[in-house]
Amino acid sequence: MIWGIDISRYQAGIDLDKARAEGFDFVLIKATQGSSWVDPQFARNLAAARAAGLLHAAYHYQEGSVSAAAQADHIARVVPQDCPVILDVEKGGGPAALTRDLTQRLRDKGYLLPLLYLPEWYWRELGRPSLAGLPPLWYSRYPSNRAGSASEVYARNQTWLDGLWGGYGGLSVAVLQFTDQGRVAGRSPVDCNAFRGTREQLAALLGGSGGASGAVSAQEEDDLTPEQDERLKRIEKELVGSWDANGVPKGWGTDIGPRTVVAMLVDLVNALLGEQLSTYPNSKIKLSAVRAIRDNNGLLFQLPAMINAAGQADPAKVAAALRPVLADVVGPVVAESVRAALGEDNQAQADAIVTELAQRLAGGVAA
Asked: What is the model's pTM?
């Protein structure tokens, strides 16, 4: 038996490195809902999960009033293709036919769908339809509301919980969410889950390297051809401007053009905090402009595929598409840093600075 958690914006800032050290092996992360909503913590949670070496997948809350096509397109705009996707189908999620349609559309887009979250009570409400052909179940049922660690809660209720793995609708249960009152990395309540198998078996279910490694190997980074690597560097330069031989952004104005706002934000975080920090929780490692692009938000995972798909497309256009995604990672760190640096007595001034930075970031390049 191995343990996991599922998180969303409600667990903002949870220390996934600490969760890993406590014995958790996987995390399921809320990403999207319907055709437009994005969990504001998804990018950060995905990056932190990969940095911590946790097996992981994203989940999408299906809305019955939105077409499968619109929901599939929304997911594809937000979730990296190498990240497995789980459909969360609950009250208002629509019929099983919509789930089948959305599942197929996501598979056609190249996504792996290893699990389906469709609670038994909602399946009964739908009229107990056949679920045959859909992914195995991520099932939820809680024996009590008493808090505790994942292993404590399961051990306390093991006889009852062991009887919940049978499945329904023609599907077996692969992952069991057995409490919403877990204590994880000093946080409570957190949903806790169990997988009756090994880490390697769950990694295989999640697609092997697609959801398993938590980090990019040197070999994966070197899979680009020389031409692709050159295009990657051009995209990075569009995003962060120029940098010196050590990979650190150059000054505010140079003889080869203006600084981009992304690079200015990296500088600002470093200046306010007095040291160079990563965006990963409790980690103090050197953050150069290049690493800000390659490491944060799993962008390195996305760039090779984007470069291949873009062909001879203008790197400036590819960079423009990536800028809002990067902003989701850098922006909150800057906002937090500005408010902390100016103190409680100057929050109006801090808010004005944060607003101006956000506007400039949306514009791409500083004047």
From this structure: 0.59
